[in-house]
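User: Could you check the structure of this?
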Amino acid sequence: MKLDSKIPEGPLAQKWTEHKNHLKLVAPNNRPKIDIIVVGTGLAGASAAASLGEMGYNVKAFCFQDSPRRAHSIAAQGGINAAKNYQNDGDSTYRLFYDTIKGGDYRAREANVYRLAEVSGNIIDQCVAQGVPFAREYGGTLDNRSFGGVQVKRTFYAAGQTGQQLLLGAYSALSRQIGLGRVKMYNRHEMLDLVKVDGKARGIIARNLITGEIERHSAHAVVIASGGYGNVYFLSTNAMGSNVTASWKIHKQGAHFANPCYVQIHPTCIPVHGTNQSKLTLMSESLRNSGRIWVPKKKEDAEAIRAGKLKPTQIAEEDRDYYLERRYPAFGNLVPRDVASRAAKERCDAGFGIENNATGEGVYLDFSSEIKNKGKEVAYAHGNHNPSEEEIIKLGKQWIEEKYGNLFQMYQKITDENPYETPMKIYPAVHYTMGGVWVDYNLQSSIPGCFVAGEANFSDHGANRLGASALMQGLADGYFVLPYTISNYLAEEIRTGKISTDLPEFLEAEKRVKDQIGKFLNNNGSRSVDHFHKELGNIMWNKVGMARNEQGLKEAIDQIAKLREEFHKDVYVPGSADELNPELEKAFRVADFLELGQLMAMDALQRKESCGGHFRDEYQDAEGETLRDDEHFSFVGAWEYKGEDINQEQLHKEELKYEFIKIAARNYK
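Assistant: Sure, the predicted structure tokens are below.
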């Protein structure tokens, strides 16, 4: 099967405009005849549902939380990118496009990324109109800060809670449509299967998580906007409920799954504390604007810190290794996430880690230099040209608090350490997934009528996402892409009429779901769902994590296959089907993670190169940087489901053609 990405012809800067100009439309009087299902109500789903409702379509929106406001989008603290060049430092649409392609290690689709950069400015205007309280300069202009992988300031932010504020903006737009009756909201519902009729997506089977009732819902098109799959690792920065079930169910119905091995390891997370921990906490990448990352230069100092005999503040400046500034002088602490993460791992593997736990892993993120620098600036601005050390520190801390106060407060609550006085401890952790459901330029999967938006699709970030681009993609897809492209598809559906949920396909899908529920509840095994999830997480982190190799990946494939078999034989799910049953919810999700985990290892095994977040030990240069193989692996790897044996999945390749940029080795030095 040949993958048709439907990328328009013509010059890069005109592709999207020309494409929009020739898409088919649905007249306003016909839109109320059309039903659309949106699964997920984070930034991508909420913005899509609100936009489609505003256009006049009948929308059904589903989320497994009790409110869309609990979507994991709120956890994106640092900011959202847009090429507005407010700081007059040389930014442009092309520069944002180029940085994104380069940051993704030349493994993203050129046309999709340019469109993302092109609509980025519109997102900021939309959000300002919604009342999102972006930070502003003294004169009223929106403020910007920098993020990893760029040399300009293009990240708009609202203190350290940007994702939450953007989600509230999208939620307010969604709530308006709910109030008008154009969107019907289904809280505490989880999609458990996709229904296809004559090859087209025509609805879903959902479970009411409160009552346990299995429901059939029909539509003329289905949008999946359910986020990424980072929780396959058990420990990640994702919310505990984040899962891959919606994406995996459509994969099993024929939607190709692309680049599953592309997983982002975020460099600034609070280190693992112990074996009973259930999730990790992200400290925003925005902190790398002001914090300097270091470890002791001497191993004996690192050992003394780990033993509790020495404090970081007792390490003299000349005895600190600011290793990112040393290795990457052009970008310093603001190198891309994959680069910063591997550099931290290298230092810790070499014995310079500082965390006093079983792993010994951790590095410092230190704000003392910024406190002094900003303290002097503030004092000078206030007319005090000869401030005392005490005044400098006081004013510097106030400046930091205004920029990052809620993040510092969160860190102190979790660790019981004051980051104004003592450097933060950080270490890389699983954060975001660049892989996802394969979609064409219109965001349609390989199932007609099934569209995928936000982190759930693969389309924009290549092998490594630049910081502050997740919020940008989610809102771009929902507000500015899907409303055009889904209408093009629905133009052929205005005569279809209501789709009955009594069709045989709905009955078959409902039976599949009920049979699976019955198997879980009647299994009478001896192990909890979490037991298997933790086991899977250990395999994934150790063998399909920050560094991979051929032997480890082959072992992972076999171990996960055996674990999956054991899971279905020995998992114990208490309770019943007709009640609130979180263990039953988790059982469905972990069953999907077990299958996906095996595919991730398979994808990583076939990709015999290192690129972005996919790092193979065998493919690195003399300085430990990624060694791509552009001749053989410049493609999107899209997998087709071929039955319960994941080893039988078939790989399809979409060649990546770069017409407007020159491919080069990434260099942040």
